[in-house]
Amino acid sequence: MNLYQYIIFGMVSFLASAIGAVCGIGGGVLIKPILDALGVLNVAAVSFLSGCTVLSMSCYSVIKAKASGSCLVEMKTGTPLAAGAAFGGVAGKIMFQYCSRLAENKDQVGAVQALCLLIITFGTFLYTLKKDKIKTHQISNSLVCIMIGFILGIFSSFLGIGGGPINLVVLFFFFSMDTKMAAQNSLYIILFSQAASLINTLAANTVPEFGIGTLAVMVSGGILGGAAGRIINRQISADVVNKLFIGLMVMIMGVCVYNMVRFM
User: Fold this and answer.
1) What pLDDT digit, counting tens, does each position of 176-199 carry?
2) CA–CA distances in Å: residue 241 to residues 128, 161, 214, 235
3) pLDDT (tens digit, 9 = 90+) per residue, 218-261?
């Protein structure tokens, strides 16, 4: 990679992580499709680097929130969700590796990821527009929380997006959380799912090829973006976060359509 590409990767990681920290979507939901669209690295490398970036950002955000006493994570439900997401993260990574082995053309996996993300984001978009009219729930059963977290972890790891919009919808609908509380709980879940996914990849020795400089630039961008996102989140209202989230989903859907066409 040349200097220009390093700058692009760093900026994408920073901006996506900042927005992700504000909205609670992890940033990978932007990093993955945008870097796929650039076509500089293969699908597997982008998925891995996106996961590492999201992991660094979520780790910083969660630790910083705990240390500052501003943590809004609901531990009674958040911890079982995170535990389930950790197992789901491993399952999702195994699914991705299996699909990669089956596909004769590796770009086909990118097309499947783009399609899945498009469907999920569109469903999330519709729910967000209508959420004031939808009755929500207050689940507290630990086993159900683990099952929900497991499903979130699968999506997170298989798509290489960290958590994405689906995390927030699940937290809105099943746990009646407001936007800011859902954002912090989402990052907590993402931290565990991405950590488990990374450990599985390292243990299975299936780390794709990429330059170490690229990883350093993206992880640094993730941490700095997480710091910026925390500052922004404290300065804006939940209503502004919600509007940013809606605009973000429209952009994600557009990039997904582009990637589907490109990978086919």
Assistant:
1) 988 788 888 988 998 888 888 889
2) 12, 19, 30, 10
3) 999 999 998 998 889 888 888 888 888 889 889 889 988 998 88
Query: Is residue 245 within 8 Å of 179, Cβ to Cβ?
Result: yes
In order of 70, 80, 170, the CA distances from 145 in angstroms are 23, 6, 11
Phi, psi of 208 (to 5 degrees): -70, 165
CA 192 to chain centre: 12
The helix, strand and coil proportions of the chain, stated in percent and rounded to the nearest 5, come to: 80, 0, 20
Distance in angstroms between the alpha carbons of the first and the last residue of the chain: 25
CA angle 15, 166, 97 (to 5 degrees): 85
- Residue 135 region by backbone torsions, left for phi larger than 0, else alpha for psi between -120 and 50, else beta: beta
CA distance 222 to 52: 9
How many alpha carbons fall within 13 Å on the CB side of residue 19?
22
